[in-house]
Amino acid sequence: MNALEVYINKVEKQLDKKVKIIRSNRGGEYYGRYDESGQHLGPFAKFLKKHGICAQYTMTGTPQQNSVSERRNRTLMDMVRSMLSNSCLLVSLWMYALKIVMYLFNKVPSKVVQKDSF
After folding, report:
1. Nearest-angstrom CA–CA distance, 84 and 19
2. Coil, strand or helix: which one is 40?
3. CA 37 to chain centre
4. Which segment, 42-46, 65-69, 112-116, is predicted with the most confidence on average?
5. Cα 53 to Cα 47: distance, rounded to the nearest angstrom
6. 108: DSSP letter
7. d(CA 60, CA 58)
């Protein structure tokens, strides 16, 4: 939870906007568990509720519902594989290659996601 708090604080200070929605899968570590007495929120869901952040959950086992992030992950890993294969570096260095690729990917301009007017 500390990493999430640090991230949210950093984003809110840099952009001068409040985080309103976080989307994640419906995994137990995020969502909580059900038992005979009902649902018990996990620490992630409690944190979001405490800070007034709306939680949007996708169905587990359906990466199609989160296509943007899945596509981004695939692109990043393709870039890492390409970097490692072309440089003849050890596969054990993949995490450093991923950090470099993420840095580069965040510096490349991309189109802005259009906001729907409600």
Report:
1. 36
2. strand
3. 31
4. 42-46
5. 8
6. S
7. 6
Residue 64 CB-density burial (10 A; 0-12 exposed, 13-18 middle, 19+ buried): exposed
**Mapping DSSP to helix (H, G, I), strand (E, B) and coil, where does residue 117 land?**
coil
AA identity, residue 97? A
3-class state of residue 24 by DSSP: strand
What pLDDT score was predicted for residue 86?
84
Burial class (CB in 10 A: 0-12, 13-18, 19+), 56: exposed
Nearest one of 5, 19, 108, 91 to 55, comparing CA atoms: 19
Q: CA angle at residue 77 from 76 to 80, to 5 degrees?
A: 90
How far, rounded to the nearest angstrom, does the alpha carbon of residue 57 sit from its chain's CA centroid? 12
The DSSP bridge partners found for residue 38 are: 35
Note the pLDDT tens digit of each residue in 59-74. Answer: 767 767 767 777 888 8
Query: Residue 42: pLDDT above 70?
Result: yes
DSSP-derived 3-state class of residue 3: helix
Residue 5 buriedness (CB in 10 A; 0-12 / 13-18 / 19+): exposed
Q: Which of 32-36, 39-43, 89-93 has the lowest mean pLDDT?
A: 32-36
